[in-house]
Specification:
Organism: Streptomyces subrutilus
Number of domains: 1
CATH topology: Subtilisin Inhibitor
CATH superfamily: Subtilisin inhibitor-like
Distance between the termini: 74 Å
Strand content: 15-25%
CATH class: Alpha Beta
GO cellular component, one term: extracellular region
Keywords: Disulfide bond, Protease inhibitor, Secreted, Serine protease inhibitor, Signal
Family: Belongs to the protease inhibitor I16 (SSI) family.
Number of strands: 5
Radius of gyration: 23 Å
InterPro entries: Prot_inh_SSI_I16_CS, Subtilisin_inhibitor, Subtilisin_inhibitor-like_sf
């Protein structure tokens, strides 16, 4: 017990003398974080071949998405621009009353170390713009 108390006092004094430790770097350059892996479920597109589920993996590119390399490149570009491609339309945003068709898409998985659970539709001008911002991750939803 005395040794444990002495260790605690010595550790506290060393920390006070040296200052706080720097933050730890991302483990092995991100190798231990969850891989970028998304599932895109399309429905009501008006094209039966598009109404299906796609898998997309980035870094390295993989899955069965028809435009995997371009989709990963699009997500990387949005990230470099500081945009969250999966953020919903703000409740405060004024949107054109425009209908882009019944197409919907659900995107789930992991991207850049965070969980994704996003829903896309084409029910007004804001939602249409949000959808088109992600093309080719989301295939064109025009019906």
């Amino acid at each position: 017990m005395l040794r444990l108390a002495a260790f605690a006092v010595t550790s506290a004094l060393a920390t006070a003398a040296l200052g706080p430790l720097p933050p730890l770097p991302e483990p092995l350059g991100g190798l231990l974080s969850a891989p970028d892996r998304l599932t895109i479920t399309m429905s009501n597109t008006g094209n039966p071949r598009m109404d299906r589920q796609y898998r997309l993996e980035c870094d390295p590119v993989g899955g069965n998405h028809p435009s995997a390399e371009q989709a990963c490149a699009r997500l990387d570009r949005l990230a470099r621009e500081g945009k969250d491609p999966f953020a919903p339309v703000s409740d405060r945003q004024i949107c054109r009353m425009q209908y882009g068709g019944p197409a919907t898409a659900d995107i789930t998985g992991n991207w850049r170390g965070r969980t994704v659970d996003a829903h896309f539709r084409r029910t007004n001008g804001c939602e249409i713009s949000r959808w088109e911002e992600l093309e080719p991750l989301l295939p064109p939803g025009r019906s």
